[in-house]
């Protein structure tokens, strides 16, 4: 299956930030803080995060904060959103720099987006989605502020999005999708509520996502895509059903999506690489315990040593 081109992936990630005027950078302009989280977490999993100037990164992250509401935008001067706020917190935690954050201001912003039915809006414009439930719960847990929301109602809302196939959708009645399943299972894991999941039924649906080429897809009849190496595999890990898929075929699929000359990982073999798929490919390999990679936490999507430092001071 070949080996992980770790050093080339490091150089690729470092080069992306320097090329601010190319097509990929322009496409990511509105979610640069997500891209920074993907790239920096990849570097940490590859044990190379010291290759970046942490002070410079932290300073830029803080410049993306909306001083009025406390949340973070996807780039400097952009509107605050739960997804960007979570990425900002995750980046600060990678560098152990939560000390510069007004934690109560940020957590008040996140908690203020919970609705009466327990769901969360992504921002002040009111879109509701279980992705935002995950972002809020994960963010508040990392900040040790889960008590600021009605966690019971939040869990009830997520459970209301469960389907007859064992999966979860974006809203009640929404189609089961691997990305939404990660968000719902991750939020339930963080809140200690995994008893609401039918592990065998959901595990069967998730293992059915493995295609003939070894990769995983997001829902039935779709092509495999490297990013689902994370969404599906992390969910299977949290419900203890990873052994239901062919791990070696999945690892081979991810490795076949590498650009072995210039670094980076694409969605499927021979396509253009990007930071998003590079992160999810490396994160998937980490869950598969690929040699040399740091282990990653399947619920918090951060290296295990970072999560241990947050919760156990280790």
Q: Give the helix level as a range of percent.
A: 40-55%
Query: Which regions contain 5 or more consecutive residues with pLDDT less than 50?
Result: none
> What is the fold-level CATH name, i.e. the topology?
Glycosyltransferase
> Tell me, what is the CATH class?
Mainly Alpha
- Rg, Cα atoms, Å: 18 Å
Strand content: under 5%
Broad structural category: mainly alpha
Tally of discrete structural domains: 1
Distance between the termini: 36 Å
Order of helices and strands: HHHHHHHHHHHHEEHH
Shape: globular
From the coordinates shown, what is the CATH architecture? Answer: Alpha/alpha barrel
Mean pLDDT across residues: 95
Q: Which strand order does the major sheet show?
A: 1-2
Major β-sheet profile: 2 strands, antiparallel
Question: Would you report the number of β strands?
Answer: 2
Number of helices: 14
Subunit structure: Heterotrimer composed of the alpha subunit RGTA, the beta subunit RGTB and REP; within this trimer, RGTA and RGTB form the catalytic component, while REP mediates peptide substrate binding.
Protein name: Geranylgeranyl transferase type-2 subunit beta
Enzyme class: transferase
Organism: Ananas comosus
Structure commentary:
50% of the residues are buried. Helices cover 48% and strands 1% of the residues. It is built from 14 helices and 2 strands. It is mainly α. It is globular. The model has no long low-confidence stretch (mean pLDDT 95). The protein has a two-stranded antiparallel ribbon with strand order 1-2. It has a single domain, classed as Glycosyltransferase (Alpha/alpha barrel).
């Amino acid at each position: 299956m070949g080996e992980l081109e770790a050093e080339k992936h490091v150089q690729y990630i470092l080069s992306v930030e320097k090329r601010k005027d190319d097509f990929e950078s322009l496409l990511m302009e509105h979610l640069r803080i997500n891209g920074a989280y993907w790239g920096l977490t990849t570097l940490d999993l590859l044990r190379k995060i010291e290759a970046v100037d942490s002070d410079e990164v932290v300073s830029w992250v803080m410049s993306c904060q909306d001083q009025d509401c406390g949340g973070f935008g996807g780039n400097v001067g952009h509107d605050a959103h739960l997804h960007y706020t979570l990425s900002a917190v995750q980046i600060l935690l990678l560098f152990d720099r939560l000390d510069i954050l007004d934690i109560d201001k940020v957590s008040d912003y996140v908690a203020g987006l919970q609705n009466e039915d327990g769901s969360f809006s992504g921002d002040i414009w009111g879109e509701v989605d279980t992705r935002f439930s995950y972002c809020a719960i994960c963010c508040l847990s990392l900040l040790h502020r889960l008590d600021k929301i009605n966690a019971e109602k939040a869990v009830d809302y997520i459970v209301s999005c469960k389907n007859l196939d064992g999966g979860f959708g974006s809203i009640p009645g929404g189609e089961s999708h691997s990305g939404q399943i990660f968000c719902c299972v991750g939020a339930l894991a963080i809140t200690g509520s995994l008893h609401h999941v039918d592990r065998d039924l959901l595990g069967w649906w998730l293992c059915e996502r493995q295609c003939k080429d070894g990769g995983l897809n997001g829902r039935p009849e779709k092509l495999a895509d490297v990013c689902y190496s994370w969404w599906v595999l992390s969910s299977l890990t949290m419900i203890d059903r990873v052994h239901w898929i062919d791990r070696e075929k999945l690892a081979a699929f991810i490795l076949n999506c590498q650009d072995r000359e210039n670094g980076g990982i694409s969605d499927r073999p021979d396509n253009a690489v990007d930071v998003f798929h590079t992160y999810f490919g490396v994160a998937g390999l980490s869950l598969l315990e690929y040699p040399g990679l740091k282990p990653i936490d399947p619920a918090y999507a951060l290296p295990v040593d970072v999560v241990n430092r947050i919760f156990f001071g280790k």
